[in-house]
Structure formats: C-alpha cells, structure tokens
Design a protein that fits this description.
about 120 residues; alpha/beta; Rossmann fold; 4-stranded parallel beta sheet; 4 helices; 4 strands; globular
Amino acid sequence: MLQRRRRTVDELIGLQRTGKRAIVIGASNRIGLAMTRGLAREGADVIVTARTESAVDKAAADIVSELGVRAHGVASDGATAAGCDAIVSAAAMMGGANDVLEMPVDRNDRPEHSCEYRQPRTRP
C-alpha cells in the first residue's frame, strides 16, 4: 500500500517562507518562541525580540543551531517607541525588507507605539 505523506496547511495553500525574514516581538518564551520556531522551521530567517537580553540571545542561538536559519536577537521592549525603533534598526542591519511581523502579545492599548507603523515599506 502506498504511504501518503500528510501535507501542512501552508503546503496545501502554497505559502513558502524560505528566503523570507520574520520579526517576532515577545519571542523569548511561550507562544512567541513557538511562533518563531515555526517560522524558522519553514525556512524564514528570524529576528527574535523580547525585553531580556539573555533570553533573546539563547533563543536565537538555539534556533540557529537546531534549524539552520539566520536568527538575530534584539533585546528591546516592543511596547515603546524607542523599542520599536531599535527592532526596526536591527532588522535593517540584516539587509532587505521584512516579510512577516508577528506580535503575539496584545499591544492594542498603545497602538501609537506599534512597530507595525515604524517598518519601512520596501515590498508591495
């Protein structure tokens, strides 16, 4: 009997993340880390951000060693304007445009500080 491999939802609808870059805010543990690992597992280079430098550096190093993608850690508070600027600056230093921005934490209480509005738009 022929064994069929189950395909992921992304494979079924044709999403590819290889060669893409993703920023995940709040990515050093729990759901943020799981989202970051998922994006990296699918081939995206990731920017791991959170407030604690040691946690961010460890998460980025683990992703690089386990999944073989580029990962960069940025210790910054994505809930502040200065934090968002630091995240976007670090992303720009990696070169190219950002393809995915994930914020698994609720920042709707301060939308004026959202990193989403600070990213340069270089891709349609």
